[in-house]
Amino acid sequence: MQKIIAANWKMHKTRPEAAQFAAQIAQELAKGTPEGRLALIFPPYTDIATVADAFAGVTNLAVGGQNFYPAENGAFTGEISPAMLRDAGAVWALVGHSERRHVFGESDELIARKTAFGLEQGFKVMLCVGETLDERESGQLKAVLSRQLSTAITPLDPKDRARLSDRLVIAYEPVWAIGTGKVAGPDEIVEAHGVVRSFLRDLVGGNADEMPILYGGSVKPANASTILGLDNVDGLLVGGASLEAASFLAILRA
Ligand code: PEP
C-alpha cells in the first residue's frame, strides 16, 4: 500500500511563506517522489490555491482542506464549503482533528455529518480519531476509538461503506502526543492501530485491510522511519515538523 505522508500546517504561513515552501517541495519532487509515497499538504484556507498551483503537474503531491462546514452554502458566517475548497484546488479534507474536537468543541455527531458530506461531495476524507490522556489512563482506549469510528462510519450507506478504502483514510492521533513532543511508543501505536483495523473490519467489511491508517503525534525526521515500519501504519500525519520544507522532505523520504 502507498504510504501517505501528510502535513497539517494548522494556523501557520502567509501566502508568500506557503508559496516558498510549495515551490521547494514541488521542485524536489519533480525530480521523483520517493517510491510508494504520497505527499499531502493541509494548508490554511488562504494558502490552498497557492499550494495547489505550485503542485500542478507533479505526481503524488496533493492538497487538502483542514476543515469545512457540511452544507453547500448558506448563512454560516466564518465557515467554508467543500465546493469552495475544491475550487481552490483541494482534493482531500481533514475531519475530526483533535483541535477541532477539543479546542472548538466539535461533537462526534458533527464530525459524522462532515465525514458523510465530504465523501458525498467527492473528497478523499481523512478522519482523525484518538484518545485523551485521561481516557487512556482510565482504560477507555478501545471504547473511545470504537465510538469515534462507528459514529462517523455507521451512518454511511452500507453499499458505499464496502467501497470506502480509496476515499476514506483514518488518522490515529493520541491527543496527548499532538504538539507535546511525546511520541506514542511502538507498542502503543501497534496496539491502537490494531484496534482501529479490527473496528474497521466490523464497520466496512471486506475492504477494511486496504483502508490506510496513519499515525500522528510528534512525528519528526528522527522517528518517522521506525513508526512507518510498524504493523498497520500506512502513513503519518505531521504537524510541527511539517512546517519546514527540509524537515517535511526528510520525513517523506524516511
Ligand atoms: C497534528 O497536528 O495532527 C499533529 C500530529 O501535530 P504534531 O506533529 O505537531 O504533534
The 3D shape can be described as globular
Distance between the termini: 16 Å
Largest sheet: 8 strands, parallel, barrel
The SS-based structural class is: alpha/beta
DSSP summary, beta strand count:
8
Strands side by side in the biggest sheet: 1-2-3-4-5-6-7-8
Q: What is the N-to-C succession of helices and strands?
A: EHEHEHEHHEHHHEHEHEH
Helix content: 40-55%
Radius of gyration: 17 Å
Write out the distinct hetero groups bound to the structure: phosphoenolpyruvate
Q: Poorly predicted ranges (pLDDT <50, ≥5 residues)?
A: none
Would you mind describing this structure in some detail?
The chain has 254 residues and is of the alpha/beta class. The chain contains eleven helices and eight strands. α10 (221-228) runs parallel beside α11 (245-252). The protein is globular. Bound molecules: phosphoenolpyruvate. Phosphoenolpyruvate (PEP) binds next to β8. Phosphoenolpyruvate (PEP) is lined by residues 8, 10, 173, 178-179, 216-219, 237-241.
Topology:
Layout: E1 3-8, H1 15-30, E2 37-42, H2 48-55, E3 61-65, H3 82-88, E4 92-95, H4 98-102, H5 108-120, E5 124-129, H6 133-137, H7 141-153, H8 158-161, E6 168-172, H9 186-204, E7 213-216, H10 221-228, E8 235-238, H11 245-252
Parallel strand pairs: 1-2, 1-8, 2-3, 3-4, 4-5, 5-6, 6-7, 7-8
Helix pairs in contact: 1-2, 5-7, 7-9, 10-11
